[in-house]
Amino acid sequence: MNRGQDALFRRNVVGVSCVEFFWGLGFPIVLESTFLQLFLQALGASGFAIGVIPALFIFGISCFPLFASYYSRNIRQRRTLVMVLHQISGAAVLLFGCALLVVDAPSLILPLFFLCYGLFSLCVGVTIPIWLNYLVRIFSDEKNVVGLGYMMLCQNIGKVISSFFILKIVEMYAFSPRSSAMVFLATGLVFILGSLCFLITREPVSEYPAVRDTR
After folding, report:
1. Which residues in the chain belong to E strands, given as ranges?
2. pLDDT digits (tens, 9 = 90+) for 63-77
């Protein structure tokens, strides 16, 4: 399969790098900054509720990969599945942004946030093992590290750009409901649009017949 993987190397690097760039734009909003904590604090959330955020995400990425690995073990072509799972995660963030535009009561916003963030964490947990398996399939052993290096570089560039965006939004609008809604809507959209870049990638055709795991 290495010959087929190497022939598609550039195409697959471009595809997954574009995905990670767009997801890098959204990561500082939902994961790798204190934006969520400050947003919930502005809503009057308790210290316990704010502390639940990382716990909820860690639970999602710790438990659900086990189920995803098992139930996807016999799926040969995984590109569509990986793309759809990424889009569901983005849709959860987009849904919360829409809810912020129409819901005024903080007592309703907090439950909606934890519902959407729980769905996001669950979907990310389900996605991780399938996504990693897909990356291993599209890159050969010799070029895997190079491909992943380009991919992570693009993700980090997206994170830097997004960090300046967050800084400007907070400076100009603080954490008003409308500005926060725009941030979550933009994050959900870049996640969903970025996921479409998986369509650029191609899975090599295996030279060996499929062996179905029936256990």
Report:
1. none
2. 888 888 888 877 878
